[in-house]
Structure formats: structure tokens, C-alpha cells
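Reopening: C-alpha cells for the flavin-adenine dinucleotide complex, inputs below.
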Amino acid sequence: MMLGLMLARRGVPVTVLEAHHDFDRDFRGDTLHPAILEIIDQLDLSDKLHAIPHVKWTGPSLVVNGQVVARIDFGRLKTPFPYVMIVAQERFLELLAAEAAESPHFRLVMGAKVQELIEHDGTITGVRYRESGTDQWHEVHATLTVGADGRFSRVRHLAGIEPQILSKPMELLWFRLARRDGDAAKFDSVDALLRRKPLAVLNAADGSAAGFIRRGNRILMIAFNRIDHWQVAYIYPPGSYHELKAAGLDAFRQSVAALEPEFAPHLATLVDWSALSPLSVAFSRCRSWHRPGLLLIGDAAHVMTPAAGAGIKYAIEDAVEAANLLAAPLLTGTLNQQHLASVQRRREWPTRVMQRLASIQQRNLFTSLADRDVAQRPPGVPLILRFLLRIPWLRDLPARFIAFGVRRVRVRG
Ligand SMILES: Cc1cc2nc3c(=O)[nH]c(=O)nc-3n(C[C@H](O)[C@H](O)[C@H](O)COP(=O)(O)OP(=O)(O)OC[C@H]3O[C@@H](n4cnc5c(N)ncnc54)[C@H](O)[C@@H]3O)c2cc1C
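Re-run output (same inputs, fresh job):
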């Protein structure tokens, strides 16, 4: 959607095909990092974005025995947007779609499930899609086909490009709990939360808490305040899903209530295992992100696990660099394979660095989850990071890296 918006604004005719009839997808994050908020500002959409209900998150504090021992603080970064915005991705995508629709060059087709590539002499020249719920097939012919269809990318598969798996999967149950009256008093004050000794507090820009992390026996639970509900990630050691499911829903509810006793009443609404989405996500990356006439971006090119918490940032930055590099050759009809390769060259290095660091973090987390000792030591936080966070002139490096990566991406043209 971001690439479609940017290309259409530059006068390139674009058709965006979306398999679903809406943008409401449960299995992806809702975070917009400072780098993305700067990009949105460069697109003149900042006011409209900030008008959507959101939470401003300034980073986690690590807590030991109720005391903050280290903090990653986006609030100190030199940027007009020193926070990660937590905003429903559905609303964000609706905003981009509405803005793109202002351009006569933009067309969005919802319920359009891409099923086949059209190929001539080794060059991809478009796609065939099926209208969802019908047997009607349509073709779209294009100079460039972009596979931005996520981690199970059909386009990638059809193009014969296989991602290399770079890590063990991160496995989690992803579910929602409705916020209840009284939650604000118990969970939204950092002091009140600290008294209950979580492993980490997620800080909001207004000084309140935007969520918390708890650790139990081989489990890590992260609860994000999403205004009217809690989005909960229940992370367990890879390979133990069947054990968890066999123990049953009651045992699961008890396990969550043991981690956070105040959630006991909330759990009454979890009456069916189907309310819990088991997700298994491994880091992966394609060796080549392109073929003649085709480019992969976002998760289709490189999957980030939730441990990175940055898949949206990297997907949007791919789109921005693709628009920066490809708009002119698309407009002049001079697009060639070198242009597509230049997008991968520009984006692969920052992606590699993030995947490498986040997979170390994820490995530490797994090691810690395999350990049955539930002592209050922070899991998966490398010593070096805890050390960095204590030195004044180094302490903002982790926040800066999470916020911007190895280089800032800007909208050009
Ligand atoms: C549980 C979980 C939590 C996460 N939390 C975070 C987080 O907090 N922060 C963060 O930055 N990232 C997070 N991520 C990662 C993030 O969601 C992804 O990296 C990001 O959404 C990738 O964007 P994308 O546009 O490449 O793909 P997607 O967001 O997956 O979008 C792909 C789109 O393509 C459509 N599509 C798929 N197949 C077809 C087809 N055949 N035809 C037409 N359309 C199709 C899909 O319907 C979808 O709308 C999380 C991921 C998971 C699984």
C-alpha cells in the first residue's frame, strides 16, 4: 500500500491487489517506529495519522525485584517523533488507501487473490487473480509486479524463489483479552505495575504504562495495552505446542492467571481454543529479491520474527526505497533488472544487521525459556546491552538502532 501510494503520487499507474475484503489482520504487529513516523511526515500524513486513536510507546524498562535496572528510552532521541506509535494497522492502512485513492493513477482491488504469474520469455508481465468467493478470474498486466504479500508469499513461491531459514521459529500463542473496568488503575500506572514486580514495563510517552512482560516457568508473556483490549503474546519453548494444547484450555488459563493474577477475571472470555492463534515464525531471507519484471519486498523478501518487533518498519522502508529508486525508470519506460537489484542492494544490508542482532536476542530468549529456573533475572538480555544502557553517552545507541536501524530512509522525489 505504501509503495502504491508513493508511486501513484509520482504519476506511475498502480494497481494494488489485496486478497481480503478489509485490512483487519490479527497476526501482525501494530507498531510504527520513529523512522516510519518521519516517513509519514515527509508524505504530509502525520496529522491524519496522529488523529487515529493510538498509544505512544517510549520503550521498555527492565525490572528486577520491582526496581528499574535498565531502560531503552526513545524519548531521548533527536527526532520530532521520539516514540513508537501503537496504532491499529487496519486504521493505518485505511488512511494510506484513502490518500492513494486521491490519485487518478491508483487503483485498489479488494478480495483479489493472486494465484498465478503471467510470464513471457522469462519475464514476469503480470498476474492472474481470483475474485474472492467467486470463480471469476482476472488478469493484470504490468511492467513490474511487486510481491508484497507477506511471509507466506504466493508470488515468491510462483516465482520459484525460496527463502533461506535463518533461525529456529519463535512460537507463541497470540490472543486478545478485553480490557475491564479497573484495569487502568491496576496496569496503567508505572508505579502500581512496578509494585507487582513484572519483568519489564513498557513505558508510554505520557508517563503511564503501555504494557508489561512477565516470566513464568518456561513462559514469557507480553501484554500490550491496545486501548480497548490487551493483545497478549504467550511465548513458549519451540516445539512444545502439542504439550500445551494437550494440557487443555483450563490449564492454559491457569498458567496465564499464575503469570498475572489480575487477568483471572479477563480469562473467563477465553472459552474456546480457537481464540488462541498459534504462530510459529522464523527469520528468513531470500538470496535474490527479484527476477525480470518482479520484485519482492517486506516479509515476502525477509521474514522478521516478533522478537525483532520491527517487521513493519523494514517492510515500509523497502517500499520507500523501491519508490525512490523505481519511480523514474517506471515513468520513462526504462526499468531493467539493474534497477530491481539496486533496491535489494540498498535494503539487504540493514535487514541483515537487524536479523542478525534480533536472532541473537531470540536465541538468548530460547536458552532462558529452556531453563526451568524462574528466578527474576531478565531473560534474553545480553550483558553487553545491560552494560550499554548504563553508560550515558552509549545508552541511547540501542534505542537509536531500534528506531532507525543502520541508516535513515527518506522519501525522495
Ligand atoms: C504475532 C506477530 C506479531 C508481530 N508484531 C510485530 C510488531 O509488533 N511490530 C512489527 O513491526 N512487526 C511485527 N510483526 C511482523 C509484521 O507483522 C510483518 O513483518 C509485517 O506485517 C510485514 O509486512 P508486509 O506488508 O510485508 O506483509 P503483511 O503485513 O503480511 O501483508 C501482506 C498482505 O498481502 C495480502 N496477501 C497475501 N497473499 C495474497 C495474495 N495471494 N493475493 C493478494 N493479496 C495477498 C495479505 O492479505 C496481507 O494484507 C509481527 C508478526 C507476527 C506474526
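The chain has a mean pLDDT of 92. The pocket of flavin-adenine dinucleotide is lined by residues 17-20, 25, 27-29, 31, 112-114, 148-150, 154, 174, 279, 281, 298-300, 304, 306, 309-313, 315 (CB under 6 Å). Marking as resolved unless the reporter disagrees.
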